[in-house]
Write a structure and sequence with these properties.
The complex is a heterodimer of chains A (about 250) and B (about 230).
Chain A: H1 2-12, H2 23-55, H3 59-71, H4 74-85, H5 90-113, H6 117-125, H7 130-164, H8 173-182, H9 185-212, H10 237-241
Helix pairs in contact in A: 1-9, 2-5, 2-7, 3-5, 4-5, 5-7, 6-7, 7-9, 8-9
Chain B: H1 2-6, H2 8-42, H3 44-59, H4 62-73, H5 80-104, H6 108-116, H7 121-132, H8 134-152, H9 164-173, H10 176-204, H11 214-227
Helix pairs in contact in B: 2-3, 2-5, 2-8, 2-10, 3-5, 4-5, 5-8, 6-7, 8-10, 9-10
The chains are: A mainly alpha (about 250), B mainly alpha (about 230).
């Protein structure tokens, strides 16, 4: 427990918050990086996911790519890209964007797939155009699952951003590596606790957002679990339990 | 390429290290998640508590967890045990939800039929619920296996040897081939364990054998035989 006292002292020491390598700067770097990586990944994954979800085409390819990407170790990708484009922020951005794509993509198209086909057929039969169906039916109804995808992507980006401190001088992960080098367990543990708190805070925000985006009149925003059928792993099952890779 | 050919021994050794780090967590997480998942499925209160805790656990980034564990359980930072415990925690966090969902997916009618036939709660679990949720558990375990193998590499940055050591070493010495070899080997180990689980699933759950043509036809024939 002494170790936690050291960590707490480190976290509470005001001197650790100021300066270019202080906690405040590192926290902003960490968060900023996470947001930018997520935006870049979303810009690619969400439109693709909507197209796949709406047309049903390219689903097999998307599943295979996501599955393959999940098996690729994040550290390997980080170090490889760092060797290619040099030490700095470029490598983490590329690696993180690539890693954040599969969960967001899966969230986007499973959100569409989870919608009752009858609802979409009804929309079509009352004369909605395909664009209208996507905009006013599929996107709102699929939003909770898309947010769930963004949530796991966020967790993964926050975690890997910590790891990225290994190849670039930025983020809360610096405290972990700096402490490791100087054998300052208070700093390592303090930094670790900060990252964990950040992850919890983001998780909390997403939990709230996920509830808020459920359209009015929809009983539950979660993927409907058809109990009789889901003894066999349904297509929706895989993405729901995936998103590993911290 | 030349680096790979002249360092096959090293790659093999790190692969063995990697298996030692990643196979126990996969096995342990299944064994631990089974009773916890049952408990989560059984009572409303325990469901809330267990699923919330496992959700939070899963949200913890891996590297910080490696640092925090020694302070809690007293393992040494670089020891394989520290990593095995951390990876087991992730596996359990993922698997508990799968077990709970899998058990919940068993048709209530089937469960009631078992009760009517005189099965006890204990034997309903082992002989009815567990086998019927087998395919869901297998799907979950495959995800656990792949993500555990991938996660185990992270330990390399704190000095725990695994295929991830090829990344850190390759990065520091600027050997691209070493990193690529590490990535390929990690993916291969993941595929290998995934394949092993699929085979294990076929053996343990023979009725799910994806024999679209043959098996299903044979089974249907048998059903016809029985019913007529």
């Amino acid at each position: 427990m002494n170790l936690f006292v050291d960590a707490l002292n480190w976290i509470l020491d005001p001197a650790n918050y100021t300066g270019p390598g202080g906690i405040s700067v590192r926290l902003v770097e960490h968060l900023g990086f996470t947001v930018v990586a997520l935006l870049m990944a979303s810009a690619i994954a969400i439109p693709c996911g909507f197209v796949i979800g709406h047309t049903g085409r390219g689903r097999g390819l998307a599943v295979a790519t996501s599955g393959g990407l999940r098996a690729i170790p994040t550290l390997g990708l980080l170090t490889l890209v760092a060797l290619w484009i040099g030490i700095g922020l470029g490598a983490p951005y590329v690696a993180l964007t690539v890693l954040a794509i599969p969960p967001i993509l899966a969230g986007a198209y499973t959100g569409f797939e989870a919608i009752d086909r009858a609802v979409i057929d009804s929309a079509r039969s009352v004369g909605m155009s395909e664009a209208q169906i996507v905009r006013t039916v599929e996107i709102p109804l699929g939003l909770p699952l898309l947010i769930a995808g963004l949530r796991s992507a966020t967790l993964q980006v926050v975690a890997t951003a910590t790891l990225a401190a290994y190849v670039a001088d930025f983020g809360l992960g610096r405290f972990l590596f700096a402490g490791l080098k100087t054998r300052d367990y208070g700093e390592m543990l303090g930094g670790s606790i900060l990252v964990i708190l950040l992850a919890f805070a983001l998780e909390g925000i997403f939990t709230v957002v996920q509830r808020l985006v459920v359209p009015r009149g929809v009983a539950s925003g979660r993927l409907p679990v058809d109990r009789a059928r889901s003894a066999r792993p349904s297509p929706g099952m895989e993405p729901a339990i995936t998103e590993g890779n911290h | 390429m030349t680096w790979i050919w002249s360092n096959l021994d090293l790659i093999w050794d790190r692969t063995l290290d990697h298996l030692v780090l990643s196979v126990p967590p996969i096995v342990f997480s299944f064994l631990i998640a089974l009773p916890l998942g049952w408990l989560a499925n059984r009572y409303r209160l325990s469901r809330g508590v267990i699923l919330t805790v496992s959700g939070l656990l899963y949200a913890i980034p891996s590297l910080p967890l490696f640092f925090v564990l020694p302070a809690i359980v007293g393992t040494s930072l670089r020891s394989p045990l520290n990593l095995v415990i951390a990876l087991t925690l992730y596996g359990v966090a993922l698997m508990v939800r799968v077990v709970a969902d899998g058990l919940a997916s068993v048709d209530a009618d089937v469960r009631q039929s078992a009760v009517a036939l005189g099965y006890s709660g204990w034997s309903i679990f082992w002989q009815v619920e567990l086998p019927l949720s087998g395919p869901v558990l297998l799907a979950g375990l495959r995800v656990v296996a792949v993500s555990t193998v991938s996660l185990a590499t992270v330990g390399a940055v704190i000095g725990a040897q695994s295929l991830g050591s090829l990344f850190t070493d390759g990065f520091q010495r600027g050997i691209e081939a070493e990193i690529i070899a590490g990535i390929v080997a990690t993916v291969l180990v993941a595929l290998l364990l995934d394949g092993a689980l699929v085979v294990l699933g076929r053996v343990a759950l023979p009725w799910t054998r994806p024999a679209g043509s043959n098996g299903a036809a044979a089974r249907e024939a048998r059903i016809v035989e029985v019913t007529t």
